[in-house]
From TrEMBL:
Organism field: Hydnum rufescens UP504
PANTHER family named in the record: PTHR31836, SRCR DOMAIN-CONTAINING PROTEIN-RELATED
InterPro entries cross-referenced by the UniProt entry: Expansin_CellWall (IPR051477), RlpA-like_sf (IPR036908)
SUPFAM superfamilies with a match to the protein in the record: Barwin-like endoglucanases
Signal is among the record's keywords: yes
Protein name (record): RlpA-like protein double-psi beta-barrel domain-containing protein
Domain of life: Eukaryota
Length: 88
C-alpha cells in the first residue's frame, strides 16, 4: 500500500517499516471503536517472516484489499520482494 495518512491517524513515508492489517481484524480488534484513530492495534509491532527472512513493522493502517484475516500489506518490503504475504 502507499504510505501517507492511514486509518490509525498516523502519517508515514515509504521509509517507515509499517503495515496495514486486514479490515476484518482491524475492525474486530479488542477495544476497537468507531473512530479508527483510537484502535488499540495502532502502533503494535508485528514480525513478519517469509522464506527465512523477517521484518518487524508497526501497524498503522487498515487493508481493504487483503484477502485473509491475518494478511499484512507491507510498505517497505526488502525481504519480501514486493509481494503481499499472509503471516500467521
Amino acid at each position: 500500500f502507499s504510505p501517507g495518512l492511514g486509518a490509525c491517524g498516523i502519517t508515514n513515508t515509504d521509509a517507515d517499516f509499517i503495515a496495514a492489517i486486514d479490515k476484518s481484524l482491524f475492525d474486530s480488534y479488542p477495544g476497537a471503536t468507531p473512530n479508527p484513530n483510537n484502535n488499540p492495534v495502532c502502533g503494535k509491532k508485528v514480525t513478519a517472516t517469509y522464506q527465512g527472512k523477517s521484518v518487524t513493522v508497526a501497524i498503522t493502517d487498515r487493508c481493504g484489499g487483503c484477502e485473509g484475516k491475518y494478511d499484512l500489506d507491507l510498505v517497505r518490503r526488502p525481504s519480501f520482494h514486493g509481494r503481499r504475504e499472509s503471516v500467521h
